[in-house]
Amino acid sequence: MGSTTDIKNGVCMRFNNGIWTVVEFLHVKPGKGPAFVRTKLKNLESGKVVDNTFPSGAKIDVIRVERRKYQFLYKEGDTYHMMDTSNYEQITIEKNRINAADFLKEEDTVEMLFNTADDSILTCELRAHVELEVTYTEPGLKGDTATNALKPAKVETGAEVKVPLFISIGDRVKIDTKKGAYMERVK
User: Fold this and answer.
1) What pLDDT is stored for residue 144 in this prediction?
2) Whole-model pTM?
3) Does domain 65-125 correspond to CATH entry 3.40.50.300?
4) Which one of 17, 100, 115, 170 has the largest count of C-beta atoms within 10 Å of its C-beta?
5) Cβ within 8 Å of residue 148, ≥6 positions away
């Protein structure tokens, strides 16, 4: 058991009959009344994000997790096959346990979170951003650079993202995996 002083970004805890991770937190000490901790929690099973406020000093059930590097091998339907880079052991994980699975390409390295109590997989996280090649997009019209207009583009993994009008087929783009949004063109 821990208390609200243990709340930090990335901490996993049992809450409302599920396992949640802290996405954001803010310790608030108002001028009048007791202090509290305002959090944004993400359910590791469903991916649902909720806001919750804990009174200062409240008890929370912290879960110890271990992060391990895995390499994505291939996908079979909604099942993804991963390999531990240290001992070459292979495991499978469902698509709903992977954040931004649409941007995952073969041989990418991901970080898997394991519950140390029973060695069960909690979630799989991609890097903060990935670089992918645009395989299809409509051509932009000449002179359309004055506005911040976006057009749909399909990247090499099959995912669709909105990109600026100057992006064309064959360009490499950097994509934010948390938001699923275009960041910049890569030279």
Assistant:
1) 60
2) 0.75
3) no
4) 100
5) 164
